[in-house]
Design a protein that fits this description.
This protein is α/β, with parallel strands linked by helices. It has helices at residues 5-19, 39-53, 73-79, 84-97, 101-106, 114-123, 140-151, 174-187, 200-209, 243-246, 267-274, 315-324, 337-350, 363-377, 391-396, 398-410, 425-435; strands spanning 24-29, 127-136, 163-166, 190-197, 216-220, 236-238, 260-261, 280-287, 294-296, 313-314, 328-333, 357-360, 382-386, 415-417, 438-440. It folds into three domains: 5-36 and 108-246, Rossmann fold (3-Layer(aba) Sandwich), CATH 3.40.50.1000; 39-106; 251-386, TIM Barrel (Alpha-Beta Barrel), CATH 3.20.20. 42% of the residues lie in helices and 16% in strands. Strands 7, 8, 9, 10, 11, 12, 13, 14 and 15 form a nine-stranded mixed sheet that branches. Helix 9 (200-209) links the parallel strand 4 (190-197) and strand 5 (216-220). The relative contact order is 0.08. The model has no long low-confidence stretch (mean pLDDT 89).
Length: 441
């Protein structure tokens, strides 16, 4: 069974927090091949050669075609059957361009998920993220500018004092650089709980100086230059940066983040929810065809007609179980009018507190009067509406969008939801945060 490396990192972090309460902790990472996917640099520089010299050697080259380290591009040229007489010129061009300021600032791309992971650790109390790279000191300014530009949408910020670079020349004694970085941060009062690097030789050098074996060594199993070799004993290999593996349960989330279990509309999903650590259950409430009872069903009967043998789960039964297990409920109201009447009556009968209630409805279903009724009955509950219709305006005309949001907050709405499929999600989220609005994704 393969170990989930991000889950192992989470466990290591939790252990460090317990062992060294109040002390400064640090996650230390390499940059190239660990944070940055260097295939994008290779692709961009090779295609720039084609444009500069009117050739077509790389016009069909795709990211997934590149499986060589950035220091071994000659192998790529052989794989692509580039004429031998052209290879020297191409390699000269590549060496001149790969670390040019423009290339560093414009064409580098991070591995998927890595900046989410870094942001997660930067949010944790007494926790920093340090960088240890084999890049020479001459690239310090370009390196920081590039990384902070890539990190901006994630609110990731890298500082000069947490970046250790190579005081020597290119490719010189890189394992020693990693060891020196480790000792530098330790001498400055940091407890290094983990180190992520894509080169096994660097991890071996670190293992040799970590005599107490307090540092978790993680091998980013991407593309690396050294020959395939065993990583040090106790090191963990992984490739994908999955933020979900870092979060052991909802208690580990920052206090302003809440998880809701989507679609708890039947007994099977309810059992799974109650067996989990998630606190909020989302229920889709609508009236059954005869309008006598409130049932849990996501689709309308127009979209998905009633099946002859269909059985539904009632809101009444779900609320009983949720209250019994001391959980909280998000009720997605699929209509206003009679449905709203029945839901408010049922919630009152169950004696659910405002702190355990979260209502969601489209503005055209409840209108101002419906939201006012929710606020009057439960002034301290979460009152939410979707604002996907406003998303283009938030980006293109934020002033007009803000006016509409202010009107909706005047109705008593205190949280807004945006579909996770929206392409400019981070830009939307940042703008909403600047305005001080809570957002559900």
């Amino acid at each position: 069974m393969k170990t989930k490396w991000m889950q192992t990192l989470s466990t290591q972090f939790e252990r460090a927090c317990q062992r060294y309460p109040g002390e400064r902790l640090m996650l230390l990472l390499d940059i190239d091949g660990t944070i940055l996917d260097m295939r994008y640099m290779i692709l961009a520089v090779m295609q720039a050669y084609d444009r500069a010299y009117a050739t077509s050697y790389f016009e069909r080259l795709q990211i997934n075609d590149i499986s060589v380290h950035e220091n071994q591009v000659d192998r790529l040229l052989d794989e692509l059957h580039v004429p031998t007489e052209a290879q020297d010129d191409i390699l000269t061009w590549y060496q001149e361009q790969r670390w040019a300021s423009q290339a560093i600032r414009e064409i580098h791309r991070p591995f998927r998920g890595v900046l989410d992971v870094i942001r997660w650790f930067q949010l944790q109390p007494n926790t920093s993220v340090g960088l240890a790279t084999g890049r020479p000191e001459s690239l310090r300014e370009d390196t920081l500018r590039s990384l902070n530009q890539l990190g901006k949408p994630y609110r990731v910020q890298f500082s000069d004092d947490l970046l250790c670079m190579n005081p020597r020349g290119w490719e010189e004694r890189i394992p020693d650089v990693k060891v020196a970085a480790l000792k530098h941060f330790q001498e400055n009062g940091y407890r290094i709980f983990a180190f992520i690097d894509n080169e096994p030789v660097n991890l071996k050098a670190l293992a040799a100086v970590d005599l107490d074996k307090e540092i978790l060594l993680l091998h980013a199993n991407t593309i690396f230059e050294t020959r395939r070799t065993r990583v040090p004993r106790g090191a963990v290999r992984g490739k994908e940066y999955r933020l979900a593996e870092l979060i052991p349960d909802e208690k580990a989330l920052p206090t302003h983040v809440q998880l809701a279990w989507h679609g708890v509309n039947d007994e099977a999903n309810l059992r799974q929810f109650l067996a989990s650590d998630v606190h909020w259950a989302e229920l889709d409430a609508r009236l059954e065809p005869a309008c006598w009872d409130v049932i849990l069903r996501h689709d309308s009967f127009t979209e998905n007609p009633l099946e002859p043998d269909e059985k539904w789960f009632t809101l009444d039964k779900a609320l009983d179980k949720i209250k019994l297990f001391d959980r909280a409920v998000k009720i997605d109201l699929k209509a206003g009018g009679m449905l709203l009447d029945k839901v408010l009556e049922m919630v009152a009968e169950k004696g659910l507190t405002d702190e355990s209630l979260w209502f969601n409805a489209d503005i055209e279903r409840l209108m101002e009067r419906g939201f006012n009724r929710l606020v009057a009955a439960h002034p301290d509950a979460i009152i939410q509406c979707p604002i996907d219709f406003l998303a283009p305006l938030i980006v293109a005309a934020p002033g007009q969008a803000h006016t509409t949001l202010q009107m909706l907050t005047g109705w008593g709405i205190n949280r807004f939801s945006i579909s996770w499929e929206w392409p400019n999600m981070r830009e939307l989220f940042d703008q909403m945060d600047q305005w001080g609005y809570e957002v559900n994704i």
